[in-house]
Amino acid sequence: QVRLVESGGGLVQAGQSLRLSCEASGRTFGSYPMGWFRQAQGKEREFVAYTNRIGGWTYYADSVSGRFTVSRDNTKNLVYLQMNSLKPEDTATYYCARAPSPISTAQAMADIKNYDYWGEGTRVTVSS
Predict the structure, then answer these.
(1) In 12-118, which ranges are continuous DSSP H helix?
(2) What are the tens digits of pLDDT across the range 10-24?
(3) Alpha carbons 110 and 124: distance in angstroms, whole number
């Protein structure tokens, strides 16, 4: 059984930064791509970022590109989401998710059906 636990959320002002962490259980963490998604109140869950198994290739939603950075440390079973220049519209609950196999298209990366394990989420609130 795989367990993902997000942390690092909180309340910040617009323009500030936060770093989210996602810790995964299991000895095969480095074998799987990982994604970050977010869900604002009353809205559907949306894709934020994707990283391949070793972190050498990443992809971002247009809304966060240039401000957010996804990285991972496979020795610690951790994946991170560094969020800079935060905006009120970034307010949401952020989730990490594991993909059971590599994903090659942007459309597929954004599809929640291509991820098999999800964390419980961590809340990010950005005030204006």
Answers:
(1) 106-109
(2) 999 999 999 999 999
(3) 20
